[in-house]
Amino acid sequence: MSVAILFSQKSSEEWQQKLSELLPETKVEVYPEIENPNDVEFIVTWKPHIGYVTDFPNLKVVQSIGAGIDHLLHTEIPENIKVTRIVDPALKQDMYEHVLACIMASMKNLMQYQQFQFEQDWKPLTYRSINETTVTILGLGEIGLLVAEKLVALGFKVKGWSNSEKNSKGVESFAGENELGSPISNTDFIVNILPLTNETESILNTNFFNQCADNTVLINVGRGAHLVENDLEKAIEHGKIKEAYLDVFREEPLPENHLFWTNRQIFVTPHIASVTNATTALVQVADNYKNMLNNQPLLNEVSLKRGY
Ligand code: NDP
What we know:
- Strand 1, helix 1 (13-22) and strand 2 (27-30) form a beta-alpha-beta unit.
- The protein is α/β, with parallel strands linked by helices and 308 residues long.
- The chain has a seven-stranded parallel beta sheet.
- Helix 1 (13-22) crosses helix 8 (278-293) and helix 2 (89-107) packs across helix 4 (142-154).
- It has helices spanning 13-22, 89-107, 110-118, 142-154, 181-185, 206-211, 229-237, 278-293; strands at residues 2-7, 27-30, 40-46, 61-64, 82-84, 134-138, 157-162, 171-175, 189-192, 216-220, 241-246, 266-268.
- The chain has two domains: 2-88 and 276-293, 3-Layer(aba) Sandwich (Rossmann fold); 89-268, Rossmann fold (3-Layer(aba) Sandwich).
- Bound molecules: NADPH dihydro-nicotinamide-adenine-dinucleotide phosphate.
């Protein structure tokens, strides 16, 4: 029996080495150098190739090394194969820090001041304070809820939107499609930390932006396909969105001629908001492999039906 690592746009060396140390009795191979695909019951993957499931006739578990599983779903996964993902305190904390950095940069106009600096323009702007600022978080899951709670602790007014209602002190909870309008229409910041599913794809569109108050700031750390890019450009032109901090894009890396590169109200980061830590994630991966061998429940299994 062996474990196969299938990575694209990511180096597998560290993962193979550390997983081999954690599972000394198990062969850990890296695709496409797989000695016998019939031996592979467990794959560890990030953005695998189309059709990857059928390459391994005895596959039992697909382990995503990210929090999301959308990158796996271009290929149909039969119901008998289990899919798991990473839930990691470090991933949540890193996301909180990234979101907080974007919010504070915007509240204190740091991006504008850098532009003014290059123009040698000494131009004071009014700034925001935490106790007068509302943040709405879309997606109160493992990551979103931690971000929400930490922002509450800092003194922000926080609203959150998810499928089911949440009961977390200081977080005003809204649930389901019918309750989306309220938290997005009266807030200073909207932070998208939703998973990408059939229901959430293109959710950040003109209809959504039209419901926002003028000058709302958007932070998108969910997935690029949540955002209709042209609709954001229009929302910025119309003053609905004041600034957008974007970490994820429909096409990554962002294509050379993309309009976002030169829009002064858009701040681009290269999908680095929160990066899976191989050391902590691999402990979960190894545990999951052992759980599979022992017919024990897997850690962080996702529902393929729900899509997250
Ligand atoms: P979870 O699965 O734990 O949480 C998802 C949340 O979204 C839940 O609160 C869920 O509601 C809510 N949700 C899902 N579908 C809907 C819907 N249709 N309407 C309303 N709410 C919905 O995910 P994580 O918190 O672990 O991760 C979220 C996403 O963050 C990942 O899928 C990934 O795309 C992104 N991410 C980005 C990173 C980056 O570096 N940019 C790094 C890590 C993650 P409910 O609680 O009711 O089920």
